[in-house]
Write a structure and sequence with these properties.
Blueprint: H1 3-14, H2 22-36, H3 41-68, H4 79-94, H5 100-114, H6 119-128
Length: 131
Amino acid sequence: MTRREIREHLFQILFRADFYDEEGYKEQEEIFFEELAPLDPKDDAYMKEKLGNVVEKIPTLDAALNERTTHWKTSRMGKVELTILRLALYEIMFDEDIPQNVAVNEAVELVKKYGTEESSSFVNGVLANFL
């Protein structure tokens, strides 16, 4: 599986985080990975580790987003855009294996697929504040 495919799967499961309590989200995560099976063991381990890391850092990521945006706090952002920003910002701030410009480019491509017409410029503009 390519990194782009992995990132898209991570987005799809992370998107559910804001709609469920912790127990419900864990159940959603299990269902999601069951539906993806069979996965290459390396891809499975990588995705689960990264997913856990991103979820753990959501408060830190949201605080960083709220500090660097004006008039667009996380509580006001669309869930698609917020989820993509969280994933990209995690890669920018904490994932040394992914170059920052790649994280931004991948976020923009992902939001073009799942967001609105205006989403790509919004996500690009927000992430530019972190480079």
